[in-house]
What we know:
Strand content: under 5%
Number of strands: 0
Distance between the termini: 106 Å
CATH superfamily of the largest domain: Leucine-rich Repeat Variant
Low-confidence stretches: none
Mean pLDDT: 90
CATH topology of the largest domain: Leucine-rich Repeat Variant
Order of helices and strands: HHHHHHHHHHHHHHHHHHH
Amino acid sequence: LGKVDLDANSFTSEELKQALAKMKESEKAERKAREEEVRKKFRPIEQLKEEFEKLNMKIETDYEIMAKLISKFNSSASTLDEKVAALYDLEYYVHQVDNAKDFLSMGGLRLVIEGLNSSEASLKEHSAFVLGAALSSNPKVQIEAIEGGALQKLLVILATEQPLAVRKKALFALSSMLRHFPYAQQQFLKLGGLQVLRSLFRQKGMEPLHVRVVTLLYDLIMEKMLLEDSQHGEQMEEKIQQYQQVRLVLGVVEQGWCALVPNLLAMPEHDTREKVLKLVGVLVAFCREHYRGDPALGTTLSLLRSEYEELAAEEQREGDKDGYFRELLGSINTIIQELR
């Protein structure tokens, strides 16, 4: 290779000028290409401003959206599918406590309570679904719903020939209405609610509802017990007096639930057994004589104890000392101990 002469004196001034001009042109072209690339990636600020303005114009409040959905549901021009779609969307909004209160003030609650009477199973199902969502932990809506006759309508759905999906949503709405609302619990008992729930155990195809009923009864019994054991303020005293009017356990014992509930321990799912064991554990104090005289229950509990001893041991070998199966085993042992 020949030696490259880097001495500036070897270039004429004209050549240097041309070289500099070429460098500037090259830089200019590169900068232009970069700007073009940036322009392709990002829109101009004017365009962005315009788009944001359009977007802001389109943003609707939850209140406005619910008003449109209620209107769609209530319109005689809407098809069945459109009404169901409106209810489906409303369920999402009324979960929020403030939205549920707005839903009430707009007349939406009255409409879904009326929807429980629909001859269309899908409207009945989704009306119950929206009702249940609006009732969840919302005392104001609970009071309005019971005054609007929702409790009777839900019990009618559960007591009559209806598709499982409809009854499932009706039971969800009933559970939402009864929880933490002693007045509703009292009315439920007066209207024969326990008999209605018991009838679900005599019908084929209603098995998926059994564990939901057991969970509801357990929650309602525990709700009252925990309140009676809590610190008593003036407000709490009033609530305790309300709960004293709710004779739920008495109704459960009188109507044969002592015999009915343990039968569900034959179910194979651990989750179902767990919920049934919780209720049996609470009922032991009130059903003790019945349980002691039930040889089938004694056999079932012994078999379950053997099964869960093995599962708990396996759990422990895997390093889980306070595992799920150990907890279930504890529940079984407690019940066996109570019945000795």
